[in-house]
Amino acid sequence: MRLSTVSRSSISRRSPFGRGKTVSGRTPEAHEQSPLGKLGWKPFFQQQLSLHEYEHCEPVRVMAVHRNRLEVAGEGGEKSLSLDGVNLAAAAELRPTVADWLLLEKESGGFVRLLERSSLFKRMAPGAERVQLIAANVDSVLIVASCNQDFNLSRIERYLALTRAAGSRAYLVLTKADLCGDTGQYLDALHGLRDLPVLAVNALQADSVASLRQWLAPGETVAMLGSSGVGKSSLLNTLSGTEQAQTAAIREDDSKGRHTTRQRALYVLPGGGLLLDSPGMRELGLASGEEGVAAAFDDIDALAQQCRFSDCAHGAEPGCAVQAALERGELDERRLNNWRKLLREIARNQRTLAEQRADDRALGQFYREVQGHARSRKQGGD
């Protein structure tokens, strides 16, 4: 695609990507008041567009991903985009996922490119040695857990590490508070997760979930992470005021949930904000994110900085501040073990992905050599 040679100073028209905003950006207005702003369009994305793209392209947001098509929304409303028309790159990280922003040609509607992301959530695909994308451009995350037998502190810490690694804000929502005689036991269990805002709600009651709207500002994209049955779809339905997603009762014997959400989808809420519902994920292998683990376990990370030896493994080494805190009862052994587990998992998955990339490069080189030999033989025959 050829780029326009028109200089920026010669452009005086208003930008189609925000009411009251010129291409030069000198007269900005609150982006959330524009149609694209309601979909989460921000200066971060607008600044990526070239002058040619301002003129000839339109940005759309991926609202849902199906097997062969994308559901997208933009200034012109919602439409379906065939994946056959999208030039997918080989790397999983460069394929469109829910909440991505794409550029399409105005006239043909053809795919142009994927915009740079402000954040990206990914995991190791269950049973496969590859990365699976969860969502992109998420501002905040509601980590959803329920006040019953399915409450799992180690799982919450895993979700928190994933959120911190992506650079998004994290909030914890405890559902089924109405079915629990005392939520205090669950709140007490969270004492190690400092600076994590927590709300206990009844996901089926509008008055109870109203307090969540403080985290759902207009134009903000908020994802929900949690296992099946914790009430994510119920939260979506109550916040939106309509039946956006199916719900089902949990199993009474173990409080385990049934999968009702089959795909990740982004919903625009009536009062502002965009909420992303996703299938429950019990398997959430961390593909990367040591910095996310450090942020989620900042108390252990701070203790590790005080150890006598910089390469301390926090076992039997002398002068280990982590072990000293454990012995004093200031650090929970479960939390320490989970911290170690997540770091080992990241290291293992990083090695696996590195080996896979090396195999892919070797296979690509083999194909190129075979093609080169085939061309040489053909030229020799000629």
TrEMBL record:
Binds 1 zinc ion per subunit. Coiled coil: none annotated. SUPFAM superfamilies: P-loop containing nucleoside triphosphate hydrolases. GTP binds at T175, K176, A177, D178, G226, S227, S228, G229, V230, G231, K232, S233, S234. Residues 128-284 form the CP-type G domain. Its EC number is 3.6.1.-. Keywords: Cytoplasm, GTP-binding, Hydrolase, Metal-binding, Nucleotide-binding, Ribosome biogenesis, RNA-binding, rRNA-binding, Zinc. Zn(2+) binds at C307, C312, H314, C320. InterPro entries: G_CP_dom (IPR030378), P-loop_NTPase (IPR027417), Ribosome_biogen_GTPase_RsgA (IPR004881), RsgA_GTPase_dom (IPR010914). Residues 1-19 have a biased composition (Low complexity). Its cofactor is Zn(2+). Residues 1-35 are annotated as: Disordered. It is found in: Cytoplasm. Residues 136-282 form the EngC GTPase domain. Belongs to the TRAFAC class YlqF/YawG GTPase family. RsgA subfamily. HAMAP family: GTPase_RsgA. Monomer. Associates with 30S ribosomal subunit, binds 16S rRNA. NCBIfam families: ribosome small subunit-dependent GTPase A. One of several proteins that assist in the late maturation steps of the functional core of the 30S ribosomal subunit. Helps release RbfA from mature subunits. May play a role in the assembly of ribosomal proteins into the subunit. Circularly permuted GTPase that catalyzes slow GTP hydrolysis, GTPase activity is stimulated by the 30S ribosomal subunit. This is Small ribosomal subunit biogenesis GTPase RsgA. It comes from Microbulbifer flavimaris. The gene is rsgA.
